Amino acid sequence: MMKADAPIVSHRPELALAAVSAVVLVALALVPQVVDLYQTQLLTYGLIAAIAALGFNLLLGYTGLLSFGHSAFFGIGAYTIAFLLRYLNIHSMEIYLAIGLAVVAVTSVLFGYICVRHTRIFFGILTLALSQVLYSLALKLFWVTGGTDGLRVARPSLLFGLVTFSGAGSFQRFIGTYYYYVLALFAVSVVILWVIVHSPFGKALQAIRDNETRAAFLGLRIPRYRLIAFTISGTFTGLAGILWAPLNGLATPDVLYWTFSGEIVFTALLGGFRSFAGPIVGGIVFTYLKTYAVATTEYWQALLGAVLVLLVIVLPTGIVGALSQLAAKLTTKAKS
Amino acid sequence: MAIFFIQVLNSLFYASVLFLIAAGLSLIFGVMRIVNMAHGALYGIGAFVTAWLVGRAVAFGAAPAWLFLLIPVGAGVVALIGLVIEPLLLRRFYRRAEEYQLLVTFGLLLILEDAVRFVWGGLPLTADALMDAVPSVRLGGLVYPGYNIVVIGVGVAAAVALWAVIYRTKFGIMLRATSQDRRMASALGINVGAVYVSAFAIGCFMAGLGGAIIVPSQAAVLGMGINALVLAFVVVVIGGLGSLQGALVGALIVSFVRTLGIQFFPEIELAVLYLIAALVLLVKPTGLFGNA
Amino acid sequence: MTVLLQTIDLRKQFGETRACDGVNFVVHQGEFLSLVGSNGAGKTSLVNLISGQLRPDSGKILFEGNDITSATVSERIRAGIARSFQIVNLFDGMTVFDNVSLSIFSRQGKAAHMAALASHDGDVRSEALEVLGQFGLREKTGIVAAELAQGERKLLDVAIAYALRPKLLFLDEPTSGVSTRDKAQIMDTVSGIVRAGSVTAVIIEHDMDVVFRYSDRIVMMHEGSFLADGTPEEIKANKDVANILLGAPLSA
């Protein structure tokens, strides 16, 4: 929090933020040079989870809407890619992105139109039911979607066909190159969402979150703002799904299932949904946690549930929230 | 003609089960203003517990008539679970934002689903013995399970009993007072904490009862909880959250559409149901009988 | 004088209680009008009906000649009506600066802009600082609204409404819950700003000292209808009013 007479004109906080972000970006870029292929692949999944969480948190942290159905957007993103490959024989990642993002955006608007007019509990119920409807469709229309087996997603070509992956050593080359592709899109996503959150629109969202009545008394058309936020949120989570499909090699119904929505919620909570960077931290940390949890126990879902409950009770502001509280305590101690 | 009549009976059968689940959910919301995301899992636990008990009893050589007593026992176990959950997990969140309650019960859902898998494994559990205990009925030229008609009876009895408790007993007055104005009720000397716990236990009992009565007809399988939860959600969206009539009417609508759906467009029946719910919401945002 | 707002036979009933019983309320451009009456007289209901939070049972509301009876709250705001709240209604998680600048963004139609940073809009920034300065909150711009003192919160509540530069501003008990020392300061500030900005203002007030000192016109409500309507001198001379206000000081 700023001091009482700190000038708001100064750009110093933003420059400092840019500097820190640049350092983090450089560090992330160097990761594949120092770790093995498996770790690079894991971190790619982590960045993808971070994008999904960032998209989700625009809705939760900044607009105050808790969605239990964000797996719908992730899954639509993934399946769109699979369909483009299977039915139109398209292999270009850029076309995947162009069409995939369009499909996810349209779906978000449609779903949002139904959901955002409603109170918080109904909103949660509607979003959950929505993702389950999609899940049931993916399961039952198996001749289109591959049912429980899912649909294969081959390695796409990157940069408009400039970079392709076939032949010997292609897996290694793919993992190595795809990491940078995802990292680039991650960086772009972070910048776009950061600007949105700090724009007049972002302020309006937070006002609607904090005090809906007063926001209406500012002349803001609340359903419209919520719908726009919902659309942006769904699109970014869909982007994560689009990036995920080629890495996973397979589009399966479990990324449409309600437990996957739960994972997305969990990542935002884990990192801290009251801060911008929280979901990023949550997404990456969760990816590692889940990998080790799944390897350790068959009942990792119960573990996820238990940790979720503990987080809500003990650490509702998440990792980033706890760290900033700690930092605040240490700085006040240092001053006295 | 007989087929049509059978479809009607099937719809009423499923509506009875849906009513129990949805009414439990609505009761809890009406009194405590929370939506228990784990409600469907409790329904599943009711099914598994009852099926397991029936299996044990049959192995023990129990007569079919006794098996019927296991249904309320199964539901009772779920009510007991509810009695543990409310003070342990939910009580601390009443004063906090709704989001936290949803998150906690969602976490509970994850835990309970895995708990079922842990205790009973991944295989379905049946309770056919109960189904077989009731003689079949002849309708036209067709045979129909008498058990289903028993279930419809249970559904009707539950609706009547619930209505009677809420509108004709002293406890019901306390429930209604607490749901309308918690502070006022407390000021009038009502033990709000006890009302909350009772309402929650009754709601859980109903979910468990739903599972208990369906399991002789439909095996208990993993994931049945979430499917039921989604349908129960559609029921309360259409009927209105917190309303007993809404749960009844909603259950009937959802069940009949579902039967039609399964008959004519089986793959997309859930999508059709959701569409109907969306349409109802566009016209009446709080559901047909709701005032949430 | 031009009529800015007019209600025609406005009625609202809550069970047995008639909050507004055929109210014909007229507000002229440029007035500083006080709406007084005992609790339950219907003042807040009237303001809630005009601002859009309540729907009337019957009757019409005309603003600048346009029928706004079925307009939504945000439509009325955009038409030029604004209000402050008796129980302070702020964006507690946001800074004082953001609370006020958002009104300006909204007024200028910039609230949906997402491709530019809010803090970089120089016009909005300077106007927000100007408004905050007028309300004596210039020193508190970076502070989160939840941390202000009560009197400051009341001023901010009015500032948020004022920053909309409304044509008609409703102030709901702007001095209630505030110490006597702050009362005068708040009212001086508010009336000064409102008059300087030529904003038409209607204030609900219980403190008759305040009412008599600052109003052009006083309207008194009693049990859902108007009992008296006139200048402070006329009201003071009114026997009905004196009966209702028995006990309240009539000094000026």
Keywords:
heterotrimer; B: 292 residues; mainly alpha; 76% helix; 2% strand; globular; C: alpha/beta; 24% strand
Characterization of this structure:
The complex is a heterotrimer of chains A (336), B (292) and C (252). Chain A has 336 residues and is mostly helical. Chain A has helices spanning 12-34, 37-62, 71-88, 93-115, 120-140, 142-145, 170-197, 200-210, 212-216, 222-248, 258-271, 278-296, 300-314, 318-335; strands at residues 151-152, 250-251. In chain A, helix 11 packs parallel to helix 13. Chain B has 292 residues and is mainly α. Chain B has a two-stranded antiparallel ribbon with strand order 1-2. In chain B, helix 1 packs antiparallel against helix 12, helix 2 packs antiparallel against helix 4 and helix 2 (39-60) packs across helix 10 (192-214). The radius of gyration of chain B is 19 Å and the shape is globular. The longest helix of chain C is centred in the last third of the chain and has 17 residues, at 180-196. Chain A binds chain B through residues 60, 66, 68, 114, 117-122, 124-126, 128-130, 132-133, 136-137, 140-141, 258-259, 262, 265, 269, 299, 301-302, 304-309, 312-313, 316, and chain B through 29, 35, 37, 89, 92-93, 98-100, 102-104, 106-115, 117-118, 226-227, 229-230, 233-234, 236-237, 241, 266-268, 270-271, 274, 277-278, 281-282, 285, 292.
